[in-house]
């Protein structure tokens, strides 16, 4: 039996007003999230992965940002059409967010307990004393020692990893069905990063919520993702089950990312790198935006933008003219 569909993003486009004109940061992006599964959105800085989730949750700075097309369906309702008041009834309770920089996201002049308790008071009408008790329970649930005492501490009194646990406690306080985590392990050391990912996996197993995790780290994606969306220059270039995408990448960009990961087999060898830099979104190349960096580009790539089309695998899609001519893992045409 297929898992319940929680969030269905269709053809989402987002543009920003700049001094140089309109910049399209997200271009016709589509993906789905199902109950109990983790979807990872993978891409370099500027690929549009964070902007897309900011748009659907209503936290996009507007102006200068504008949603110019698409839908984000949650429980039969398009989140993009909700009023600000109606959206507050969904985002923060049924859909929750974990941000990259916990120190900046937390209010430095209030205790962490007060900040968590406020969620219960505003959304559930809980009394002050009961809300603080629940705040302590949430801190204990995410593995913060001495939770009853630490509810009275301020954000600066926690380490980076513990602050991120506080953010997770806030996000989970109201029992959301969807958790969106934007680079939740960035700036954390490897050991703490592993602990945070393990915590998210454990809580997901207990609650059966759907998780959207945004990252630029392939190792994180490989460890936690059930499904994977790869973005480049504001567009989805490949998507599908993680085992399919990482085991047999169909798009040259995905292949380039995988080839750049260090491995024991390549000890002593130079790591391959994708040549060039990501394109200027104000001056995208004609045809395929990856064309100037692609070792397999040909004439058609310069004149025709590849559409996202079915590829081998479970609900697998890719945006490349060479999908009917699969590439080897080493990047050469078979």
Strand order of the largest sheet: 6-7-8-3-9-10-12-11
Helix count from the secondary structure assignment = 12
Q: How many discrete structural domains?
A: 2
Q: In CATH terms, what is the fold-level topology of the largest domain? A: Rossmann fold
Please tell me how large the radius of gyration is: 21 Å
How far apart the termini lie comes to 37 Å
Morphology: globular
Uncertain parts: 328-334
**What's the CATH class label of the largest domain?**
Alpha Beta
Biggest sheet layout: 8 strands, mixed
**Mean pLDDT across residues:** 91
How is the topology of this model organized?
Layout: E1 5-18, E2 21-34, E3 38-42, H1 49-57, E4 65-74, E5 77-78, H2 84-88, E6 95-98, H3 102-105, H4 112-124, H5 128-141, H6 147-150, H7 160-172, E7 178-182, H8 190-207, E8 210-215, H9 218-224, E9 227-232, E10 235-241, H10 242-247, H11 252-259, H12 299-303, E11 309-311, E12 316-318
Parallel strand pairs: 3-8, 3-9, 6-7, 7-8
Antiparallel strand pairs: 1-2, 1-4, 4-5, 9-10, 10-12, 11-12
Helix pairs in contact: 4-5, 5-7, 7-8
């Amino acid at each position: 039996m297929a898992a319940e569909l929680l969030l269905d993003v269709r053809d989402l486009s987002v543009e920003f007003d700049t001094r140089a004109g309109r910049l399209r940061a997200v271009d016709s992006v589509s993906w789905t999230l199902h109950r109990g599964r983790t979807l990872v959105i993978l891409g370099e800085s500027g690929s549009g992965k964070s902007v897309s989730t900011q748009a659907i949750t209503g936290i996009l700075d507007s102006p200068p940002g504008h949603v110019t097309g698409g839908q984000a369906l949650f429980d039969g309702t398009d989140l993009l059409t909700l009023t600000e008041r109606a959206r507050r009834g969904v985002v923060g309770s049924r859909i929750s967010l974990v941000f990259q920089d916990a120190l900046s996201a937390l209010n430095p002049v209030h205790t962490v307990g007060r900040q968590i308790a406020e969620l219960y008071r505003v959304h559930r009408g809980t009394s002050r004393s009961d809300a603080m008790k629940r705040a302590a329970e949430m801190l204990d649930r995410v593995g913060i020692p001495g939770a009853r005492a630490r509810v009275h501490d301020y954000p600066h009194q926690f380490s980076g990893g513990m602050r991120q646990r506080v953010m997770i406690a806030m996000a989970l306080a109201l029992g959301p069905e969807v958790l969106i985590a934007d680079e939740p392990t960035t700036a954390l050391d490897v050991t703490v990063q592993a602990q945070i990912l393990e915590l998210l996996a454990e809580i997901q197993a207990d609650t059966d919520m759907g998780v959207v995790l945004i990252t630029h780290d392939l190792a994180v994606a490989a460890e936690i993702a059930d499904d994977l969306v790869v973005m480049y220059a504001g567009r989805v270039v490949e998507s599908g089950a993680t085992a399919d995408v990482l085991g047999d990448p169909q798009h040259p960009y995905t292949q380039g990312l995988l080839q750049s990961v260090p491995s024991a087999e390549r000890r002593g060898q130079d790591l391959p790198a994708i040549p060039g830099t990501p394109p200027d979104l104000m001056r995208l190349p004609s045809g395929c935006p990856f064309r100037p960096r692609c070792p397999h580009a040909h004439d058609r790539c310069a004149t025709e933008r590849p559409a996202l089309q079915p590829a081998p695998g479970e609900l697998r899609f890719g945006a490349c003219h060479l999908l009917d001519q699969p590439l080897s893992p080493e990047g050469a045409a078979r």
